[in-house]
Amino acid sequence: MIRAAIVGLGWWGKTVVESAESSDAIRFVAGATRTVTPEIEAFAKKQGFKLEANYDAILADTTIDAVVLATPHSMHGKQVVAAAAAGKHVFCEKPFTLTKREAEDAVAAVKKAGVTLGLGYNRRLHPEIVKLREMIRGGELGIILHVEATMTFPNVLFINPSHWRADPHETPAGGLMPMGVHAVDGMIDLCGPIDHVFAQSFRRAAPIDADDTTSILFRMKAGMSGYLGTMTTTGPGFSFQVFGSKGWLRLEGVTHVAGASSEERRTHLFGTCKFQPIKGEAKVWQAAKLDVSRAALEAFAKAAEGGPAYPIPYDQMIHGVAVTEAIVRAAKSEKVEKVQ
């Protein structure tokens, strides 16, 4: 059993804690957050963990095996390095870091310390993604031609302008960081490294100074193309589709919508699935139900205790950050940008 501390207790930090309830692999024993309110104190009491004064206190506590970071994106790199130096395993919510250099430094730190690093791209563990991965690798879709995704939610219509998620430094290129990085990670997982990107990102309906409509084109090193669209001021939705020379497969669902129940955010991300071969009738089914947040935490905990390695290799963690950096550059330059 891994004894963990949650760092950051916003709506998603609370959701992460709730996902570990009754887990036999990981248990939250402590937490820290920038602003402690009566609501936070009540949540900690209900969940049975103690609130520490700050992150340093968490790292100094020898009864804590691991830290789980649900903090602003710009803090991740230094917090991972500090956790590694303190001998703590560390699970970092996505996106990993905002720069490739920070990602490289964080990975180097955990390797040097011999601790486990997990990253919160939990959709990789969903049975429908596992099935899609096996179909691609087994040749059932043929030669992969193109992969595309659309991710939307209305959260920016209701966000407090002073909230860190409203800061364009924390969330450049609209919905890329809060949502789109899941699709970028999926493309890397299923299609391999990304070579170059082109992006456009602008504001249409957002009440704050932030992009809400972003579209991105990709070209993978293996030759297939990709597309990702994100919108932050419309209804919630998620689709991921892979086109091959033997047919296509489409997964539909929803995104993590603030305000939805914790159980919904964790278990209802995938819905209708459809496989259309080049000949014959389409097959349609409903996705299996799985708490992907819990699955990711438990995969991390098992890796930290010497079990199977966490399912996202370090080189893919770093490459994902390099891709998002290139997207942000492309949105500003309005030119095709090479992934560095």
Feature tags:
340 residues, alpha/beta, 9-stranded mixed beta sheet, 6-stranded parallel beta sheet, 10 helices, 15 strands, globular
Description:
The protein is α/β, with parallel strands linked by helices and 340 residues long. The protein folds into two domains: 2-122, Rossmann fold; 123-294 and 321-338, Dihydrodipicolinate Reductase, domain 2, CATH 3.30.360. It contains ten helices and 15 strands. The strands form two sheets. A nine-stranded mixed sheet has the order 14-13-12-11-7-10-9-8-15. Strands 3-2-1-4-5-6 form a six-stranded parallel sheet, sandwiched between helices. A hairpin with a 2-residue loop joins β11 and β12. α4 packs parallel to α5 (100-113) and α7 crosses α10. The radius of gyration is 20 Å and the shape is globular. The chain starts with a strand and ends with a strand. The model has no long low-confidence stretch (mean pLDDT 96).
Number of strand segments: 15
**CATH architecture type of the largest domain:** 2-Layer Sandwich
Mean pLDDT: 96
Describe the main β-sheet briefly. Answer: 9 strands, mixed
CA-based shape: globular
Q: What name does CATH use for the topology of the largest domain?
A: Dihydrodipicolinate Reductase, domain 2
Query: How does the helix and strand content classify structurally?
Result: alpha/beta
Which CATH class of the largest domain? Answer: Alpha Beta
**How many separate domains?**
2
Adjacency order of strands in the biggest sheet: 14-13-12-11-7-10-9-8-15
Could you tell me how far the N terminus lies from the C terminus, measured between alpha carbons in angstroms?
39 Å
